Amino acid sequence: MWHEAEETILLSDVKKQISIKPIESIVTRANAPQDDAKEVHQQLTEAISCQKQELASIEEKQKKRVEEADNQIEEARKKWETEKQELIELARKQGFHKGYEDGKQEAYTQFEYKLQEANHIVDIAKEDYHQTLEKQSESIVEIAMATANKVLHNELKEQPDYIRTLIKDALDEVKSQPIISIVIHPDYYEEVHSYQEELQRIIGDETKLSIHADMNIQPTDCIIQYPHGQIETSVNTQLEKIREALMDYVMEDAE
């Protein structure tokens, strides 16, 4: 019985080390200007450093709680052994077998209570640890998304040609379609129309390509329409992909 109780606590003492992988490589894929890229790197580095310090503190607190639980179980076990011997001796001297059995049961019940209490402490420590990890992970992703959003929108303002990359990537997915229409905001119509021949080469001469302007879409949006559907590509789409990749990187080892 004692071996089972001790094994329960020892197994619950096993903790996974959380490693936060570098994520600046994901954000820099957005073709950020050099100054903004440095700002992204600095802010993410500081955020990761703060998170690691917080996780180290949580791990230390969890370790102390587990040690306290182990000590409580050990104390309960020793107390049980002492009381058991005392009860045996008392029963031997007085000859009251029933009193001995009742006393032994009471001591055993007290030990079981201490064991449950210790396991509860360990469970709470683990729950606190994972809740803190989740909050810190969300925090660092929000910091990354804020900086990535700034970089991508600045990139689009300073280098309008950035939308060409979005369109080319989208066309590559539907280039086998017979008819393709590119729908963009009027602000970028002239820009996109200037490299229509380049886009035509991507999809091939057998595909009919047209470009349309639409005031109802956002300046950072682009819609690629074809006979059986459409693809929406935009800065926000790129940001969402970055968010998903960041969450995967941050939470990968915590699962």
From TrEMBL:
One annotated GO biological process: bacterial-type flagellum organization
Keywords assigned: Bacterial flagellum biogenesis, Bacterial flagellum protein export, Cell projection, Cilium, Coiled coil, Flagellum, Protein transport, Transport
Keyword Coiled coil among record annotations: yes
The UniProt record lists the keyword Protein transport: yes
GO cellular component: cytosol
One Pfam family linked to the record: FliH
Flagellar assembly protein FliH/Type III secretion system HrpE domain mapped to chain residues: 116-242
Superkingdom assignment: Bacteria
Coiled coil: 41-93
Role according to the record: Needed for flagellar regrowth and assembly.
Recorded family membership: Belongs to the FliH family.
NCBIfam families: FliH_bacil
Protein name: Flagellar assembly protein FliH
Organism: Oceanobacillus oncorhynchi
